[in-house]
Hints:
Its cofactor is Mg(2+). ATP binds at residues 9, 57, 85, 91, 102, 112. It comes from Citrus unshiu. Residues 1-138 form the Nucleoside diphosphate kinase-like domain. There is one protein chain. The two termini are 14 Å apart. The protein has a 4-stranded antiparallel β-sheet. The protein has helices at 10-14, 18-28, 42-48, 58-65, 80-88, 101-105, 120-130, 143-146, and strands at residues 3-8, 31-38, 70-76, 114-116. The chain contains 8 helices and 4 strands; from the N terminus they run βααβααβααβαα. It has a single domain, classed as Nucleoside diphosphate kinase-like domain (Alpha-Beta Plaits, 2-Layer Sandwich). Helix content is 41%, strand content 16%. Residues 52, 57, 61, 91, 109-110, 112, 115-116, 118 line the site of ribavirin triphosphate (RTP). Residues 52, 57, 61, 91, 109-110, 112, 115-116, 118 line the site of ribavirin triphosphate.
Amino acid sequence: MEQTFIMIKPDGVQRGLVGEIIIRFEKKGFSLKGLKLMTVDRPFAEKHYEDLSSKPFFGSLIEYITSGPVVAMIWEGEGVVKTGRTIIGATNPAQSAPGTIRGDLAIVTGRNIIHGSDSVESAQKEIALWFPDGPINWQSSLHPWIYE
Ligand code: RTP
């Protein structure tokens, strides 16, 4: 079953939005397969965002991600990478639809509270980086009520 990496960024943690964000993935029917509160240092943040290293905002992005604890998660379910991005909303909260996490809870791109993998391939790479011991292996008893 497909898995994605979701991270609540330092502003999401500081603003007390951890529960609000988790509930949206839980209520949708996705399964939590990994969860930890952690701080990351600059080399780790730079590795996570290595594809963006040539962007003008790279320095401020690394400052932001290392500015406080983040919540790292693995979520599992059919189509969870794409649907997870839909639940999160557009990168710029001003363009995120109401009902999405960023559309409801954030205002500017540089404080957009959450990250979600943008492809199955990135998800695998990010899960390996953030969860070197891998996901927790369990299956919800609700599985037959969520999938036919
Ligand atoms: P994420 O990786 O965090 O889920 O975000 P994303 O795919 O929606 O956006 P991406 O283009 O990969 O950018 C990663 C993060 O960098 C910050 N950013 N700042 N100031 C800017 O123009 C700018 N553009 C991007 C955001 O925190 C964005 O989520």
